[in-house]
Design goal:
By secondary structure, the chain is of the alpha+beta class. The chain has one domain. The chain is built from one helix and two strands; from the N terminus they run E-E-H. Strands 1-2 form a two-stranded antiparallel sheet. A hairpin with a 5-residue loop joins strand 1 and strand 2. It is elongated, with a radius of gyration of 15 Å.
Amino acid sequence: NQYIITATDPAGNSAIASGTFTGTSPTENPVNKSSGVDEMISLSEATWHSVSVDEEYYA
């Protein structure tokens, strides 16, 4: 699976992060608690946190 994240600050600077992640569905492998979806959720939360901090910094 691939993901692309684009972030732009108020000054118009943009950054793009992309890559791939692998994960098994919990229904297929209940032992594997760390699925690709969990990784994406964590990454999204970290990204949104960074963006909000940047907005406060530039405001």
